[in-house]
Structures are given as structure tokens and as C-alpha cells.
Amino acid sequence: MGNTKRLLVTGSSGLIGSEVVAGFSKEGWEVHGVDNNMRADFFGPQGDTRWNLSRLQENHALFHHHEVDIRDRSSLVQLLQTLRPDAVVHTAAQPSHDLAASRPFDDFDVNAVGTLNMLEATRLASPETPFVHMSTNKVYGDGPNEIPLIETETRWEYADPDYSDGIHESFRIDQSKHSLFGASKVAADVMVQEYGRSFGLPTCCLRGGCLTGPNHSGVELHGFLSYLIKCNIEGRTYKVFGYKGKQVRDNIHSHDVVAFIQRFIAAPRKGEVYNLGGGRDNSVSILEAFALISEISGQAMKYEYVDQNRSGDHICYISDLKKLKAHYPGWRVTKSLRTTFEEIHNAWRGRIG
Question: Is 167 among the domain residues?
């Protein structure tokens, strides 16, 4: 392949992984994906990502698929030694709070141990290789719920001016309730930082807000926006869990996530942490999301209210993007909330028929 750069992506059939494959393939990289469709095991047929794998294989000639489980340490070491990639993007994960509670060993083995396996395999094969880890805002646990809030007609909002731009990276990650999923992701997050600090690996943890986009296999337990829009199109009833439906998330399109990953790999740092989300401009409550998708689709949203919030669920979470923009000033959110909604709506329409 001459001077072609080589990328390894775990979770390559998932939302962010597949966008990474597409984004780097378009830039001329030789991309190797690691994915064993564990999402179908976790979520059943609705979580199956084989359709996405087929799409990648059809559209990207420089994409190579590897049916490897990130819990399989020796296979990972062998793969990294063979490929010696110029960059690693680690997106594979068990992503659900609810599932983690019922399958704690699977959750920890995938999220924490799988990440350690990837870090060590990378260090042994090519310690100068930039390593990007998709972490989560759930590493902050329910600590953000301690911030005083104001209730408006459609959402909860931060009352403390220190958080007017959202949650920053210095917010504590311990002494709060995380869910077992959040705890396993904390373990992974800290380990990625440690490989940067102890071994000098160029690593970063991207603590995502709601990462979304048209290629999400959204299900009730994970993929809130994709699933909400699917329910609207199919005329299904969406369950709202607590907080009056006014809980807020900032949504970032997978395209903008990949754009940041490309910038980090081009100019990596060691042991860094960034909150990566849509920021205030792309924040939306469930009630506001209902109104927006109804406007786009022309169909009223059917929902029922369950007066019991999900354990440890954030009431209001907005990512403060100041640090990220200071380190990488060329990056910005390019996909508006409405554009993101429209793309997901159109993708589901195409898939559902």
C-alpha cells in the first residue's frame, strides 16, 4: 500500500465506529475494523449491526473486517503486531446501564478489561500510535444532579452561572452513583489516561454527551434520540422515565465526533480528557424532542409517563466544549440539532420503508 496510513477501529459496525471507518476511508486510510456483533447479543435482533457492516464493505474498498472479540487478549496482541496501525480508535463497548446491572461480568469484561487489552496490545506493538478512547459523560455519575436547577416550561436548566456553558472536565468522577456501566467506563477512562501518563502513549478519553446520527441502531435501552424518532415514525408509544420529561441532553452528530478524532490523531496529546457533545446549542429535553420530531414528520408523538426516573440518570447534562476548542481551535459543531433530527428521521424512513 506504499505510504497509505493504517487505522484500527474497534466497534467498527456501531454508530461511531462505522462513521470513523467512513471518515478515514474517504481520506485514503486503510481501515481495519474489529467487531463481533456483540450488540445483537446484548440487545437482540433490534441491536444487530450486520446491516452496517455490509454497508461499509460495499462502500469502502480499503476497509477490512476482523471478527475479533476485544476480550480475546491473545488475538488482539496478534492483530496489533501484524497491523502496527498508525492510529487506534476504540469505540467498542457495552453501552447500557440497565444491561450492566443484569450482566455485570460481561459489562466489566467488555468495557474495562477490553480497554486494557487494547491499550496493552497497542503499547506492545506500536507505543507511539495515537489511541482515542470513546468514554462517556456517565463517568461523572449522578454528581451533575447536585447542581442547582431551574424548572422552565419544557426543560430543567442550570441555576449556577459556573455551569452556563455546561459540565467541564474538572468535575469530579467519584463519590457519586454511576450504575455498573458508569463504573466500568470510569475504570477504562482512568486506564487510558494512565497509559498516557505512565507509558507516554498519545491517548485521549472523549467523554461523550449523546452521540447520535442516522446510522444508529437505536433501542430503548441505548440510543435515546434514534429510538425516540423511530417510535414517532412507527406510531409507537415512547416511555418517559421521570423528571417530567424535562431532562436535557446535548446531542452531537457522529460526523462531528469523527471530525474531532481526525484532528486529535493529526496532533495528539498524552493522557488527555475532553467532554465532547453538542454543547448548549444542540441541547434538547425529551419534551422539546417530541415537539421537533412531530414538526419534521407531521406525526404526533405517542408517549406514556412513568413517574420513576432511571437510577443515576442525569437531569440536565450539557457538555462544556471550551477546553476542546482551546486545544483544537479548528474544530466546531457543524450539524445543528434540526439537521441531525432530519437525517435520523430520513434514515429510519429508508430502513423501515
Answer: yes
Q: Which residues pair with 89 in a beta bridge?
A: 9, 132
Bridge pairing between strands 210-212 and 248-253: parallel
- Asked if 8 contacts 86 with a C-beta cutoff of 8 angstroms, the reply is no
The CATH number for 96's domain is 3.40.50.720
In the chain, which residues have pLDDT < 70? 1-2, 217-219, 221-223, 353
The gap from C-alpha 348 to its chain's centroid, in whole angstroms, comes to 19
Beta-strand (E) ranges in 113-236?
Answer: 131-134, 149-151, 156-158, 203-208, 210-212
Q: Is residue 348 part of a domain?
A: yes
Look at residue 1 in the predicted model and tell me its pLDDT: 47
Count of domains forming the chain: 1
The C-alpha cell that represents 270 in the structure block: 498524552
Residue 1 lies in a domain: no
Q: Is residue 88 part of a domain?
A: yes
Q: How far, in Å, CA of 128 to CA of 331, rounded? A: 24
For the entire predicted model, the pTM comes to 0.94
Instruction: Tell me which residue range forms the domain holding 328.
Output: 6-352
Taking a C-beta distance cutoff of 8 angstroms, is the pair 262, 27 a contact?
Answer: yes
Q: What was the pLDDT predicted at 353?
A: 67
What percent of the chain lies above the pLDDT cut of 70?
97
Distance CA 9, CA 87 (A): 9
Provide DSSP, 254-297.
Answer: HHHHHHHHHHHHHS--SSEEEEES-TGGGEEEHHHHHHHHHHHH
**pLDDT for res 221:** 59
pLDDT at residue 222 in the model: 63
